[in-house]
Amino acid sequence: MTGGWGPITLGTAGHIDHGKTALVAALTGVDTDRLPAEKARGISIELGYAALALPGGRSVSVVDVPGHERFVRTMVAGATGIDCFLMVVAADDGVMPQTLEHAAVLRALGVTRGVVAITKADLADPARAAGQARALLGADVPAVPCSARTGAGVEDVRAAIADVVAVIGAAARDREGPVLHVDRAFTIRGAGTVVTGTLWSGAIAVGDRLAILPAGTPARIRGVQIHDEPVERAAAGQRVALNLAGVRREHVGRGDVIARPGALTPTRVLDCALDVRGARHNMRVHIHHGTREAPARLADLGDGRWQVRLERAVLAADGDRVVVRSVAPPDTLGGGVVIDAAARRHGRSGPPPVADPPPPPPALTAAPPPLTPSALALEERLRDAGHEPPPAAELDPGDLGALRDAGRVVRLGRDRYAHPEAIAAVRARVEAVIAAEGSITLGRLRDELDTSRRHAQALLEHLDAARVTVRHSDDSRVLRGRPVD
Q: Rounded to whole angstroms, what are the CA distances from 322 to 60, 215, 306, 332, 448?
């Protein structure tokens, strides 16, 4: 449908060192890496923001996210509330592990429209990377070659974004009253506490009296800014900075919500329609909602419906999106839609809902497509590689993505994927060594598997994260729950 001129927020996505921040600077004139640590390390660590002017006088808000796998949680917080994406893929690298994970986050959040920028097109032929990106995101997503260093193609990227924005319009934001999920909180000398976020719904104006949820702390809006420009009022869909009067910095942070008092009730139980690869009943996961995350367990309700039982309350409403990530290894499994944000604990035989829940989007109930011959060949290659899988950069990203979606690979460390049978075999050998000898060390596993120190370390860290083993001060591992002799 035609969207008119409502506010639009665009989020970047893509692997580390593929040039997201450089491209945003070329498009907007703003360097979103503002922290000294970001300058020193040459990577994005926190969220960055800029206004992007489009042909015809329109402007959209840009959220620039980190690409490093250690900062995926920050990426998810930044992607919350966006309307479209700018996926950045370097011509010389092509699709990489964080490209795959960021694409999974976007799917989980229901963000399907956007542009792929094939950066560093002055260093390599962009055709290969463009083909990989289309295979990952869809043939209808425009892939535009460019170079932030030379400036070539940058205006073509701007034009492609304008075309996407013209047809998607602003997202439906019909919830009553303002809701802003805080993604940053800091203090400005002479002004006091400032928070930023994407305004999900409603409007916020200078002088409004709102609350910081879930604590309920009163907050008067002393000032409102949009991209460093003071305004009297901000509308839903805009990136907003709020100066809060009478609020100390330690009383607000990422994950809180600025809204009317009592507008949202903290909840620890959500009924959801989820598309989550490899999900099983009672599986422990991390749930991301808004800018807040919480450990949880999944309860299978059947027919693609799951109850999410959280260890930390979230501030959700029916129709909101959640992202589901695995605990070990940390990876995005999928996501879906909240059906009942005020659910009670129940199983498949629990009480029927009072009203018919909204049907889940088609993507949430569609079965994954059958694996192609090339994907099956890749699965066989990984099975043969055992506990020494090749780097993901050597694998076809489309086939790897298909195996991920089917739950037939396991992420191992930062840049490798192993077959589940290989991980199970290593686990069995580790348990056998610990049963016979009381513990296992990195060197002992290296010798047991006749492998490299790097592979042994990645395997042990995976088992630690999976809560199979626990590491002690002398670097030995024992089975979790078993005391050291």
A: 24, 22, 12, 11, 41
Residue 44, token pair as written in the block: 């994005």
The alpha carbon of 373 is separated from its chain's Cα centroid by a whole number of angstroms, namely 30
| pLDDT at site 331 | 84
Which of 56, 82, 163, 52 shows the shortest CA–CA distance to 115?
Answer: 163
Which tops the pLDDT comparison, 358 or 429? Answer: 429
On the question of pLDDT at 309 being above 90, the answer is yes
CA angle 236, 237, 238 (to 5 degrees): 95
Q: Which residue has the tokens 């309860």?
A: 299
Task: Say if CB 83 and CB 57 are below 8 A apart.
Answer: no
On whether the CB atoms of residues 65 and 11 are closer than 8 A, the answer is yes
Q: What is the pTM of this model?
A: 0.71
Measured torsion, CA atoms of residues 90, 93, 94, 96, in degrees rounded to the nearest 10: -110
> CB 428: neighbour CB atoms within 10 A?
10
Cα–Cα distance measured from residue 63 to residue 46, given in angstroms and rounded to the nearest whole number: 10
- Angstrom distance (rounded) from CA 147 to CA 22: 9
Contact 332, 105 (CB under 8 A): yes
User: For residue 157, with 0-12 CB atoms within 10 Å meaning exposed, 13-18 middle and 19 or more buried, which class applies?
Assistant: buried
268 bridge partner residues: none
Closest CA to 249 of 227, 217, 293: 217
> DSSP per residue over 112-146, as a string?
--EEEEEE-TTTS-THHHHHHHHHHH-TTS-EEE-
Tokens of 27: 């498009």
CA 71 from centroid of its chain's CA atoms:
9
> Do the bridges between strand 9-14 and strand 233-235 make them parallel or antiparallel, or are there none, so unpaired?
unpaired
In the block, tokens 């593929």 appear at 18
